[in-house]
Amino acid sequence: MPQAILLQDVETLGERGTVVEVSAGYMRNYLLPRKLAEPATAASIRAAERRRQDAERALREAEDRARESAALLGRTVLTIQQQAGDDGRLFGSVTTQDIAEAIRDARGIKVDRRKIHLEDPIRHTGTYMVVVEVTDEVTATVKTMVVAA
């Protein structure tokens, strides 16, 4: 049985980069035309191993950068000025977009507004602890002070 290196995840065979044994007809008629796999030779196996190592290294570096960003965000105190009445109630609200812009201005870190978790928009002056999801596993809590302008 010929061996193939998967170029993409195939549900019944395995994940990308895996060397699998398949029948010659399945390889010739299904995997190769759809560019799901390539024939496994010694050179292609080495190349697939290098690609896998490079991908793992890139993933580790991205996780390290995410942890650094989370540590920096954890030390950040944002001050957002909004117009407010005498009772401290804002004339508008502070949304996740406002917080994302304040983080970008303060630290230069670009955060997607959908990764900022607020139960409700902030409608009163005060101090709030806002959770920012840097990656799926890494989160940071940013102290946000809303003051009257």
Describe the structure.
This protein has 149 residues and is of the alpha+beta class. Helix content is 36%, strand content 30%. The chain has helices at residues 24-31, 42-74, 96-107; strands at 3-6, 19-21, 37-39, 77-82, 89-94, 116-117, 122-124, 126-133, 139-148. The strands form three sheets. A four-stranded mixed beta sheet has the order 4-9-8-6. The protein has a three-stranded antiparallel beta sheet with strand order 2-1-3, with helices on one face.
What is the element layout, followed by pairings?
Blueprint: E1 3-6, E2 19-21, H1 24-31, E3 37-39, H2 42-74, E4 77-82, E5 89-94, H3 96-107, E6 116-117, E7 122-124, E8 126-133, E9 139-148
Parallel strand pairs: 4-9
Antiparallel strand pairs: 1-2, 1-3, 5-7, 6-8, 8-9
Oligomeric form of this entry? single chain
Radius of gyration: 25 Å
How does the helix and strand content classify structurally? alpha+beta
Mean pLDDT: 93
Give the distance, in angstroms, between the N- and C-terminal Cα atoms.
Answer: 74 Å
What spatial form do the alpha-carbon principal axes imply? elongated
Specify the helix fraction band.
25-40%
Poorly predicted runs: none
The main sheet comes to: 4 strands, mixed
- Strand-residue proportion: 25-35%
Number of helices: 3
Provide a concise account of the structure shown:
By secondary structure, the chain is of the alpha+beta class.
